[in-house]
Design goal:
With 212 residues, the protein is α/β, with parallel strands linked by helices. It contains 6 helices and 9 strands. The strands form 2 sheets. The chain has a 6-stranded mixed beta sheet with strand order 4-3-2-5-6-7. A 3-stranded antiparallel beta sheet has the order 1-9-8. Helix 4 (80-87) links the parallel strand 2 and strand 3 (95-104). The N and C termini lie far apart (47 Å).
């Protein structure tokens, strides 16, 4: 049987709404300064804090999945840096894979969920850990979890570097959380605005003047 795709889990919006999302929505401003650091309002989590949190989360995952071989699934592109550090803090055997889904374009305007890259292994009877950079509304993560469960995964848990509870729109909870995130536009450590700032070594709040 064919595997369910994400558009089956989360149906596309009505045509009228799609016209607004894709045609009528004004692009977000991109008032970039001459340097990445110059666009930073304040640093939220320093590199040493991020390193320590990866060690803490890696130890917890290693304890919880002892005797198992979990499949770590990173959500591209935002989770790539976090996942790279986290997996090196996990002491038990594990496998890795990646998916690419999108509900945000370069202009950060919500749209229907788009599935770009699937996992390359069979999920039946696998213990899956989905790794995210940040959970805000939770809609994308919930859709991913439902799709993986429908494919026969034995378990699906979530780990996120940042949890922005103030933006939550659906009932989804991460078992492993790095930091509670303030309701700010965050960048750095893999997280972008219009594909910039991913290479900053810390997590920071972006100046409002950049995106307003």
């Amino acid at each position: 049987p064919s595997l369910p795709c994400f558009t089956e889990v989360l149906p596309p919006p009505p045509l009228a709404l799609r016209r607004v999302l894709f045609r009528g929505a004004a692009p977000m401003p991109q008032n970039f300064g001459p340097t990445l650091e110059g666009d930073v309002e304040r640093v939220l989590f320093q590199p040493e804090e991020l390193r320590q949190k990866c060690e803490e989360l890696g130890a917890a995952i290693s304890r919880d999945y002892e005797g198992k071989v979990p499949l770590l699934v990173g959500v591209l592109s935002g989770a790539a840096v976090f996942m790279s550090d986290l997996k090196r803090c996990i002491s038990i055997p594990c496998e890795i894979d990646f998916i690419a889904v999108s509900s945000y374009g370069k202009n950060a305007v919500s749209s229907e969920l788009q599935f770009k890259k699937d996992v390359s292994v069979d999920l039946k009877d696998r213990d899956v850990i989905v790794i995210e950079d940040i959970i805000d509304t939770g809609k994308t993560l919930k859709a991913i979890g439902e799709a993986f469960s429908a494919r026969g995964a034995s378990s699906v848990e979530y780990v996120t570097l940042l949890d922005k509870q103030a933006r939550r729109a659906v009932d989804v909870t991460a078992k492993y959380v790095g930091f509670e995130c303030p309701d700010e536009f965050v960048i750095g450590y893999g997280i972008d605005y219009a594909e910039r700032y991913r290479n900053l070594p810390y997590v920071a709040a972006l100046k409002r003047s950049v995106y307003e």
